């Protein structure tokens, strides 16, 4: 049984999926703008919703920090940029892939 956790590196705008201490996948992400920065800290995934509508793309995975999550986007050009109101944006196909791997309660570390 995999022991997944997620690390989001804000400095290089990458999300890393780890199994134990080994990185198994890495994804380019969009993060919060200057005035709406992505919050640094330790969180968990508390819910998932497919096709939530609006700017959230194909998948929403809510974090234990209210109003923040890892989600898809209806604007693929925003990936790799300071583009969100603090959430972690991913390409739709990649966030769907990630959501199938990680269960609710997966630990998410967001760091500078």
From TrEMBL:
GO biological process: cell wall organization; peptidoglycan-protein cross-linking; regulation of cell shape
Pfam families recorded: YkuD
PROSITE patterns listed in its UniProt record: LD_TPASE
L,D-TPase catalytic domain residues: 4-111
Pathway: Cell wall biogenesis; peptidoglycan biosynthesis
GO cellular component, one term: extracellular region
CDD domains, per database record: YkuD_like (cd16913)
GO molecular function per UniProt: glycosyltransferase activity; peptidoglycan L,D-transpeptidase activity
Gene3D superfamilies: L,D-transpeptidase catalytic domain-like
Record keywords: Cell shape, Cell wall biogenesis/degradation, Glycosyltransferase, Hydrolase, Lipoprotein, Peptidoglycan synthesis, Transferase
Transmembrane segments: none
Active site: 71, 87
Domain of life: Bacteria
Family: Belongs to the YkuD family.
Annotated protein name in UniProt: Lipoprotein-anchoring transpeptidase ErfK/SrfK
Originating organism: Paenibacillus phyllosphaerae
